[in-house]
Amino acid sequence: MEQRETMRLHIAACKASGQTVAAYCGSHQLKPHQYYYWQKRVQLEQAPGKFLSITPLVTNAPILLTLVNGNRISFETLPPLAYLQQLLK
Predict the structure, then answer these.
(1) Which residues neighbour 46 within 8 Å (Cβ) at sequence distance 6 or greater?
(2) Other CB atoms closer than 10 Å to residue 14's CB: what's the count?
(3) Are residues 42 and 69 part of one domain?
(4) Which segments of 19-88 does DSSP mark as H helices, in order?
(5) Residue 54 shares a structural domain with residue 69
(6) Are 35 and 25 in contact (CB under 8 A)?
C-alpha cells in the first residue's frame, strides 16, 4: 500500500479513536511529527481550489495576480473576464 494511503487510514483511525495524536501514534509506532506532516498534506490534497468573488475593476493600471501556490500573473491592463476564466481553469 502506498504511504499516502496508509497515512490517510491512520489519520481517519486516529480521529475515530478519540485518542490524542500522541497516544495514537505511540500505539501505532508513528512519530507525531510524521502524523502532522501527512495530515497537512492530505488536507491540502483534498481541499478544493477556493476563489473569492470580487467586483471587476475598471482600470488601465498594471494588474498582478498572486495565486495560492505562489505563482504570479501580471497584465499591463485588466484583460477580459472570459480570458481570465480560461487561464485559471
Answers:
(1) none
(2) 20
(3) no
(4) 21-27, 32-46, 81-87
(5) yes
(6) yes
Residue type present at position 52: L
For the chain, counts of helices (H) and of strands (E):
4, 2
Among residues 70, 69, 63, which one has the least CA distance to residue 81? 63
In the chain, how many domains are there?
A: 2
* Residue 49: predicted pLDDT: 65
Q: What is the pLDDT along the chain (89 residues), one digit of tens a residue?
A: 688 889 989 999 999 999 999 999 999 999 999 999 999 988 877 766 666 666 766 667 788 888 878 888 888 887 887 887 787 77
Range of the domain at 39: 3-46
